[in-house]
Amino acid sequence: MPLLPRFAIPLAAAALLTAPAAPVLAAGGPCALDGGRLKSAVRADAPAEVLQMVAAAEAGGCQGAARSTVRRQASAAIAAIARQRLAEGDAAGAEQALSEAPALHWAVIAVRGDVAASRRERAAAARYYNAAIDALTDPAVTPPGPWTDAPARTLAKLAQENMMLAGSLETTLSRGGEPTGALRYLTRGLSWDPDAPADPAPGTAGDGGTDETAQSEPTVGAQQTAEATVGSGDGAAAGVSEARIFAPIRFAFDSNTLTEEGRREAERLAAFLIVANIAHVTLVGHTDEVGDEAYNLELSRRRARSVREALLDAGVAASIVVLGKGESEPPVLTSDDAYDQEERRAIARRVEVVLEQRS
What we know:
45% helix; single chain; alpha+beta; 13 helices; 4 strands
């Protein structure tokens, strides 16, 4: 069994086990857990020792918010133990460890996603990864801080990769268009002005000059993964922020005809675009590397056009630009080892939805 991709911040890292939380506990107080002992318990694969530390703290009078902090720290340590077991191929042992976690913790949920992914249960994995993002980014569950951004980005990538393989946005987007998980995280901070003009950067025609709605090619970065660039990077400096989303919209083999499931997902995406009142969308078609390069380029354009038509049919009033990239920009995956060849190709056969914000 291939090892699963590691998170941007390892679950066993001291920075995670001692993540800032309120209230700040006094050194040596009844609620202070020994970080060194926690790490030793992780290395020794000893969840019972972690739970003994929790029991001792609570017996010593640890209550209220401080008790919640202790339980979160212990749960992070148990998640690290579970992940070690999973890396050794012991999925059942990982699940057993996770069942002992004393509190809701994003890392526990994330490792449940890893377990599901190790079994190729893609819909379940996507559901857990999206739930982990919600727990990580909810200040009522996880004390906020800049440290949360790196694992949230990785979880968003894992969620999208598994949603592509499951063929559904269901775990991040309701039929009514309400986002959660990866989609809510990737579009955080974006606001939409329906009256803002579409002002793509100068360049060649995005769809070979053959599409009636295509304009000059916008600045869609090569090799850019499905991560938001909100408030950072060159886009922010230019007054443009964007979110890039993998749309798990499926087509008939070697065709731009949407399958029944593909049309369902296009309608789900349309509901989000309508509810969010998004005015400008770029659809970027991609293929895998199988077949003739020129043919794949044209197929990617036709597929992006088909998605646009489905969105318009579903009532989307946004300006939609269509681009085709063919096989030239394969996705940057969290780990090639996490997927077999056909799964990697399935993720590559994607339509990216680029949502831009202009100030």
